[in-house]
Task: structure prediction
Amino acid sequence: MQPRFVGRLSLADAVTVSNAAVGFLAVVVADANPELAARLVLLAAVADGLDGVLARHVGSSAAGPYLDSLADVASFGVAPATLVVAVVAESWGLYTPRGAVAVLGAALFVGAAIVRLGLYTAYDTDDDVTEGVPTTLASVVLSAGVLVGVTDPLALVVLAYVLTVLMVSTITYPDLLARDALIMGVVHSLAVLIPDFLGRTFPYALLTLALAYLLLGPHFYWRTTTASRPA
Result:
């Protein structure tokens, strides 16, 4: 007897599932090697972009949007939150007042990511704009920050709280154009494969691009549509 998914899921869906598996690996190694965990989160982001490309050009299944959001909970909700907790634990400990604030922030980050992904699946899947900071972008900012050496617990905790609020905000973000998504994907891949190249050039480049889109995208990013979200 064949597994139920045979004939029902597409190649894009298989990449989506691999995204979730990579996110799990990031959680497993976060405590022992935060930098490797950050690279794995970025690798999951590459897989997330690839499954979208495959879905557009090869096709997906009816389960695709749901699998995508479920995978993103693991890779861009739980994994980056665990990364923050792992870095904080080394300096502050978890059973201290500051540690408790950090753990609370990580828990809220996961909750906001789930809410953000649920709302996206319900309302934004077919649009070229979305409300709230994408979970992928939030996780990239945190992970690229760790790769470039932003491991001060206070900085990471504050950043996690800020991103938590932004994920459930009504700020409108346009989807990246194909050429820009390709550039981001290349930089992503190089940051994962050779993070130490020329003084961490690619992690710095990735963090710069991610922060630019985070801060400027809603107001200055050129796009082909003028569609706006309802109030």
Summary: The two ends are 50 Å apart (CA to CA). The first helix runs from residue 11 to 30. Strands lie at 129-131, 172-174.
